[in-house]
Amino acid sequence: MASAISHAVVALTIGKTIPPAGFPASVLVLGMLCAIIPDADVLGFRFGIEYGAPWGHRGLTHSLFFAALLSGILTGLCYRLKSAVERWAFGGYFFGCTASHGVLDAMTNGGLGVAFFSPFDQTRYFFSFRPVLVSPIGVGEFFTSYGMQVVLSEMLWIWLPASLFFMTGRLLLRLMNRRPVQSTPEIG
After folding, report:
1. Partners of 132 in the beta sheet?
2. How far apart are CA 28 and CA 36, in angstroms?
């Protein structure tokens, strides 16, 4: 898995880049939580749930079905009084943040893969391009030499592309909002 911080970075980047003005802070915080929450499935280890089980790590909570369910529930509970356009925008953002978790995990070099289509199909998938070092599950593991390698890997393969995405988005927005310079007619 990628670290919780990197999952949150991706959600924040999406939320600050896609809508022209960015989403409100409360929506960004929920988006970052959506990007992190799929890893709550690691609690299953304490209850004897095996890694490869449907409720195991990178199982149902990493699926597109879970992303749709969570985004629908959050949007319905927190934003039911907003306009339909805002509800769709927030729901789409929450879906994208939650789904991004599995996408990042499928780019790591460890684990059993991601059950993107659970509960309908338990097949686990990785992408053919897997440059991100798999993150340790325990927080204490980050304070080791391997933990530092993971951080550097995530900075290169997640944070840097997220930064470039944000800067490109802002540059395009600035260019689109430029007004043509009015020229003064020549007299003569």
Report:
1. 108
2. 13
